[in-house]
Amino acid sequence: MKAIGIHHHGDASQLVPLELPEPSPGPHQVRVRVIASSVNPADIRARSAAPGPRRIERQFPLVLGYDVSGIVDAVGPGVDELAVGDEVFGSPSLFGQGANAERVVADSRTLARKPAALSHEQAACLSLAGVTAWECLSRARPAPGAAVLVTAGAGGVGHLQLQLARHLGLRVVATASRPESTALCRELGAAVVLDHTTQDVGQACRDLTGGAGVAVAFDNAGGRALDQALDAVAPMGTVVSIVPTPAPVADRLFMKAASLIYHVMGAATIWRLDPHAQGRALAAVAELAAQGHIRPIVSASYPVRELSQAHRAIESGRTIGKIAIRVAEGW
Question: In angstroms, rounded to a whole number, what is the distance separating the alpha carbons of residues 132 and 202?
């Protein structure tokens, strides 16, 4: 089968056409004929030559693409909930082969049926980022009406987190800097949008909340965004980060009696604590999308043959929403 992948870690130029054997589904797995995929920071980390705290040992050639939307065309033993011909979307295992290929195998328990209201490109852009946003909010459990900070509010996870938080009745303060990012945050329902490059985000959050700070601060970018989240969170509050950081943070939280939670998409599934956890989160996100409460913003779409260009766009740090990859018709 056709695929785009890498033989070695490196920059985007390492992404090359591959010809690979067609995979077969094992127990609890289905094979999906890929219509669309998307690009996430996880793809960049997996491809990059730079070591990092999320580096996983890989087998080459490696196909990236940790979002998928497509049609089930083969079913393995023990699969009852899906059948050949079903339209599904989800995230292939971060430890295995991805969806920048004609076909990909995935655990059926981590997938959900594609909402009819979404195109395959939209569905692919909803899976990993949508589950991440949902799980971060589920772990933080902010009280109804609470103020929360969503850093990088126009980003892949941020723009979905913002919409979910608004749907849950939370008061959302978002950070952005460029006019198009700020406009998107406002369009999606942020009560306040702060310029993280020019404003004191922590002080602004305290001013907006009568001096306390936000109940939950979501760090979606690391670095300065984490610093601002630590400053903005209220005493007894929670910071939720999806980005690993080597910087010590305990002294920033101790006197506030605040908490820091690190979150990785599908952690309960990855660590075999609950094989259905990721699928349940995805199904919840799919239902909200079907009802029109959240929508993935697809800011650009590339044929899979131009995957390297899509990677470079993500690495520029200037994209909003998500970038879709057209796989079925993109060779």
Answer: 24
Residue 101 is classified by DSSP as B
Q: Which residues of the chain fall short of a pLDDT of 50?
A: none
What is the DSSP-derived secondary structure letter of residue 213?
Answer: -
Alpha-carbon distance values, 224 to 174, 229, 244 (Å): 14, 9, 13
- Residue 123 tokens, joined: 């569905």
Q: What are the tens digits of pLDDT across the range 243-297?
A: 987 667 888 899 999 999 999 998 998 899 999 999 999 999 999 999 999 999 9
| The CATH homologous superfamily of the domain defined by 2-128+274-326 | Medium-chain alcohol dehydrogenases, catalytic domain (3.90.180.10)
Is 129-262 a CATH 2.40.50.140 domain? no
35 in Cβ contact with 328 (< 8 Å):
yes
Ranges of CATH 3.90.180.10 domains, the chain = 2-128+274-326
Q: Which tokens in the block code for residue 216?
A: 């939950």
What stretches of 95-252 adopt beta strand conformation (E)? 103-107, 111-113, 147-150, 171-176, 192-195, 214-219, 233-241
The single-letter code of the amino acid at 271 is W
> Residues 172-213: pLDDT tens digits?
999 999 999 999 999 999 999 999 999 999 999 999 999 999
Separation CA 15–CA 220 (nearest Å): 26
Q: Are 4 and 15 in contact (CB under 8 A)?
A: yes
Q: How far apart are CA 156 and CA 159, in angstroms?
A: 6
Range(s) for CATH 3.40.50.720 in the chain? 129-262
Q: At what angle do helices 120-140 and 277-290 cross, to 10 degrees?
A: 120
Count the neighbouring beta carbons within 10 Å of the beta carbon of residue 280.
17
Is-above-0.85 flag for pTM? yes
Nearest to 70 by CA among 123, 24, 107, 29: 123
Measure the CA–CA gap between 216 and 206, rounded to whole angstroms. 13
- Structural tokens at position 242: 């999806």
Contact 284, 167 (CB under 8 A): no
Cα-only R_g, the chain: 19
